[in-house]
Amino acid sequence: MIKRSLKQVQEMCSGFGLKEEFEDIVIEGVSTDSRTIKPGQLFIPLIGEKFNGHKFIKNAIEKGAKASLWKKDEPVEVADFPLIFVDDTLDALQQLAKSYREQLNVKVIGITGSNGKTSTKDILASLLSTQYKTHKTMKNYNNQIGVPLTILEMDEDTEMAVIEMGMDKFGQIERLTKIAKPDAAIITNIGEAHLDDLKTRENIAKAKLEILKGLKPQGLFLYYGDDSMLKREVESVASGYNLKTFGNGSLNDYQPEIVFVNETGDSFYLKKPKSPEFFLPMLGEHQVLNATAAIAVARYFGISYENIKKGLLNVEKTGMRNEIIKCNGFTILNDAYKSNPSSVLAALNTMYSMIGYSQKIVILGDMLGIGEEIISMHRDIGIKINPNEIDYVLTYGEYGRYISEAAKINFGKDRVFHYDSKEELVKKAKELIKPNALVLVKASRPLQMEDVVEALKV
């Protein structure tokens, strides 16, 4: 993590007003949360719509904060405590991270995309760590606050950093990529997420392509080549980079061939360029594409095939994404972190491929942020659920009911149920679940469907 004197911190974030007597104090790490701050850290109080971190400075000091950034027009509530004044604390956090990244001899890989970026990040970090000291985005720290915090968590001797970049509007990826300054960049795909704000897939692609604005000249740019729209957008803006594509199509530079997919994971090899066979203990055909992107970048940075094999077997996955949970006599496939039509269909295909279960039940909630066609997209999912593969469909939420309405066309009324209460949904699920059943739980993050997962486990 960052270890700098307060004088250096002030210079790095373009701050001012630090008293000379505090200049030689050294901070170790930063935190924006007074509740979890650790002794010796720099406190960075942020201001949001419903909170002002400056009001918690005394809590931060009690927890051991060594100093704090301070928005210049906020009242100062503490005396004789090291403060560095700034115009805006979020801007200062980002500037501090940008300066720190520039001081480190580290290769950065930036990853964005509508689906798959977290899994690709986890896989790539595992591959790189077989030969390099590697740092990666933890949890969901992929936004305007999370990316700077991820960078500031890096040790000085970090050799590789895999940084996930998320967005919901224009300009956000550009800001993040100019902080991280990647040596390589990946766009995993372009889906329906963020249609509420960006309206079209073309606009989503343009927003994701902002990652190029921080990519170093001649840096590797890898993107999903099976999407003709994305390919057109790339060709209109990408020049001066090492362009490569991955995907199932034969025209891609990196093309996987699946040997088998089952509940233990995926066996595959690269058809282009020819590679040995690999095994990835992650669920679903879509993970093969994520692994292909990771392998392409790993090979670019000199990771041997032998180490790629080892790295694939030891991926540390971020939670609530195709997470297998063994309960009392049945299994939950917990994919409750996010949801959109592409990711729901991928999760359903994963369910279909998993054999040896007495029963398969899907519990689906709202897919949010997918634009004006949100109702028709939910209905489309309901129609596409295969009644020969799935025994029961349970839905929850304002838009989940449209999945149920459409699913009844193929399933009939006795196998499809909608609830506006999580408690009632869980009660019905428990009535239906048989020994050795497989249950998928999936919805967008605001629905907090992990509540359902926890209730089913009891």
Give keywords.
34% helix, Udp-n-acetylmuramoylalanyl-d-glutamate--2,6- Diaminopimelate Ligase, Chain: A, domain 1, 21% strand, 6-stranded parallel β-sheet, alpha/beta, UDP-N-acetylmuramoyl-L-alanine:D-glutamate ligase, Protein-Tyrosine Phosphatase, Chain A, 3 domains, globular
Strand segment tally: 21
In this structure, how is the largest beta sheet organized?
6 strands, parallel
Averaged pLDDT, please? 94
Helix/sheet category: alpha/beta
Q: Bin the strand percentage.
A: 15-25%
What's the overall geometry? Answer: globular
Tell me the helix content. 25-40%
Low-confidence stretches: none
Distance between the termini: 39 Å
Walk me through what this model shows.
- This protein is an alpha/beta fold and 458 residues long.
- It folds into three domains: 3-88, MurE/MurF, N-terminal domain (Udp-n-acetylmuramoylalanyl-d-glutamate--2,6- Diaminopimelate Ligase, Chain: A, domain 1, 3-Layer(aba) Sandwich), CATH 3.40.1390.10; 104-312, Mur-like, catalytic domain (UDP-N-acetylmuramoyl-L-alanine:D-glutamate ligase), CATH 3.40.1190; 323-457, Protein-Tyrosine Phosphatase, Chain A (Alpha-Beta Complex), CATH 3.90.190.20.
- It is built from 16 helices and 21 strands.
- The chain has helices spanning 6-12, 57-63, 89-103, 117-128, 146-152, 172-180, 195-198, 201-208, 228-237, 286-300, 305-312, 341-353, 374-384, 400-411, 422-432, 450-457; strands at residues 3-5, 26-28, 30-31, 42-43, 67-71, 83-86, 107-112, 134-136, 160-164, 184-187, 220-224, 242-246, 255-262, 265-272, 277-280, 323-326, 331-335, 359-364, 392-396, 416-419, 437-442.
- The strands form five sheets. It has a six-stranded parallel sheet with strand order 8-9-7-10-11-12, with helices on both faces.
- Helix 5 links the parallel strand 8 (134-136) and strand 9 (160-164).
- Helix 3 (89-103) runs parallel beside helix 5 (146-152), helix 3 (89-103) packs parallel to helix 6 (172-180) and helix 4 (117-128) crosses helix 11.
- The radius of gyration is 24 Å and the shape is globular.
